[in-house]
Amino acid sequence: MPRIAAGPDQATGPNRTTRPDRTTSSSGQADGSAHWQALGTLVHLVVTDPRCLNEARHLLTADLEQVDAACSRFRADSEIRALRTAQGRPVLVSPLLAEAVAVALRAAQLTDGDVDPTVGAAMSAVGYDRDFERVPTIGPPLVVTTRTVPGWREVHLEGRSLTLPEGVQLDLGATAKAWAADRSAARISSRLGCGVLVSLGGDIAVVGPAPEGGWRIRVQDVTGAPEDPPSGPYALIAIRAGGLATSSTAARRWQRGGDVLHHILDPRTGRPAEPVWRTVSVAADSCADANAASTAAIIRGREALGWLARLGLPARLVDATGVVFTVAGWPDEPASDEPASDDQRPMSQRPMSQRLPARRR
Fold this sequence. Notes:
Distance between the termini: 46 Å
Largest sheet: 8 strands, antiparallel
Strand content: 15-25%
Oligomer: single chain
Radius of gyration: 19 Å
Helix content: 10-25%
Structural class: alpha+beta
């Protein structure tokens, strides 16, 4: 059964990039998987029929190139960057960008604004203003303290007509990668008729016939190359459909003055969320829902435990001291560092189909 690693999203530089057409199992037979770099992160593709791998890879590569051209806030020629010249006027956007924005707005609604696509300017203000591998790891203190985020309700999308208030910069980083995984996995499975797993930086979508026993996924706080999983405690779970996502305050970090910053902003302050959780992993009926929930959980802090439980979303939360909490049917883990057994039961997954009442602050 295929076993996939999932953990904190980390940018992968050229020294970590591999581009095989396919990898091989210990027996030397092609196992229907490949990994490479795109969207500033590690891409892992697995198909249940190895004969479909080459075409699946071509389809996924083309999809990710289109998503990058539409949604990257770092490319000068991207469609989303061009919106900055609209000056509050409605703009007719491509079907692809319209879909990406719709996914981001849905995530904002379902998380009561925790996942807000209007944090683009705030993200740049704290230093994340270019591809992450080019962000200086150490720099002078920031003059920014608290920055008002315009808010997702100020974004209006009607079909392909998008209206942003003047000065608003969209950042789809919290949703686009997970949505792209869902979109490509569904397209590949429909086109080729096989089971498909797409992992983009650890945000995983699976579609089509699953392997016997489900897609087995190793969830761990420490990341490593796909062919060399790191040591340390981990959870071994199985999913048959939907998605799994991990959000982290331990990855994509940089320092300004004495402040250690990370890439998950609380839209109410425009500053990185308090690092209550080192990582949060969530399973849902889509990768987009799983990622919205895991990101919101980072921002909600301790309140996330009850919130995820009420939504019925299986989740694994690791706090800053390394203590693991699980909710809503996430399989129990060993009490020691011993590896989890290989017979972990598959989890049921649900959509984020309801919006919870606003939190008191």
